[in-house]
Structure prediction request, 143 residues.
Amino acid sequence: MIRKAEPGDEKSLANLASKLWEHSPEELAKEFEVLLQDPKCALFLLYTEDTPIGFAQCQLRQDYVEGTNSSPVGYLEGVYVEPWVRRKGNARRLISACEAWAKAQGCREFASDCELSNRESLAFHLASGFTEANRIICFVKPL
Prediction:
């Protein structure tokens, strides 16, 4: 079962997200508390019985999104499913929930990104119907 997350789900979201992103569950729970109140953001939880086993985060982006021609654009910020339930279509189901939400918000396009070195994520995105829009390398220097 997939359902849209709501206030009170911060801990479940944070526990899953900490396995995807290098942040502590405590840090992430605070972020999710704010995001759950933001109408430009949607979070979805995937359950098996009553146990959360995956999540997806999407948002509306109104700034330019590489490769798109419209605004706002639905944007997949992150998706994660537990290793033991991978390769069963669960992440794609979470993405579909994000896409449906974005479409209901008036979006005509849906986008995402991954690091150049993350071949597994690249393969997943391509298998999920995304097409590669561009490759960039970002630079920074101290002032």
